Amino acid sequence: MMNWLYQLASPKLFYAMTNRLVVWLAVICTVLFTIGVIWALLFAPPDYQMGHNYRIIYIHVPAAGLMEGCYYLMSLMAFSYLMWQIKMADIVAEAAAPIGAMATALVLVSGALWGKPTWGTYWIWGDARLTSSLIMLFIYIGIILLREAFESPESGAKVSAVLTLVGLVNIPIIKYSVEWWAVLHQPASQLSMRDTAANPPEIWVPAFIVGFGMIAFFFWVLTLRVRNEILFRERKAQWVRQLFDGSPQHA
Question: Is 188 part of a structural domain of the chain?
Answer without folding.
Answer: yes
